[in-house]
Structures are given as structure tokens and as C-alpha cells.
Amino acid sequence: MKRQSVESTSLAAVGFNSATLALEVEFQNARVYRYYGVPWTVYSGLRDAASKRRYFNANIIRRYPYARLS
């Protein structure tokens, strides 16, 4: 999945697969997580949020199943 860089002190890049509803989040420490069942609106909200980390904490973490990729 292709990820795009974002401006954030915590997140480095995000990517989304609309066919599988999978969201990938790469953190500044190079760890990558894939979240499953994430609606497009949530991905769009993350991408457009002024504070990516705050949006991620409020709307994604602990709400969707995930796997650590690296």
C-alpha cells in the first residue's frame, strides 16, 4: 500500500486501501501498523486533521483491529 507523508511530530505517513478498508500508519519511529475496517471518512479525517496524533488517538486507536507490520 502506498503511503503519503504527513506533517506531524508523531506520524510520518498514512495510506488507505478503499477496497479492503485498511489504513496504514507509519510513525516517526519507523513502526508501521495496519488498521482494519476503517471507513473512508475516518481516513479522510485523519489526513485533513490539524493534529494527526490527536485525531488518531480520538478516532482510530482502540477502535479498530490492527496488526504491526514493522
Give a structural overview.
The chain has 70 residues and is α+β, with helices and mostly antiparallel strands. 24% of the residues lie in helices and 33% in strands. It has a five-stranded antiparallel β-sheet, with helices on one face. Strand 3 (22-27) and strand 4 form a beta hairpin. The longest helix is centred in the middle third of the chain and has 9 residues, at 40-48. The radius of gyration is 11 Å and the shape is globular. The two termini are 14 Å apart. 21% of the residues are buried. The model has no long low-confidence stretch (mean pLDDT 97).
Brief synopsis:
The protein is α+β, with helices and mostly antiparallel strands and 70 residues long.
How does the major sheet shape up? 5 strands, antiparallel
List low-pLDDT spans: none
Number of helices: 2
**What is the percentage of strand-forming residues?**
25-35%
Provide the residue-averaged pLDDT: 97
Query: Total strand count, please?
Result: 5
H and E string:
EEEEHHE
Fraction of residues in helices?
10-25%
N-to-C span: 14 Å
General form? globular
Q: Going across the major beta sheet, what is the strand order?
A: 1-2-3-4-5
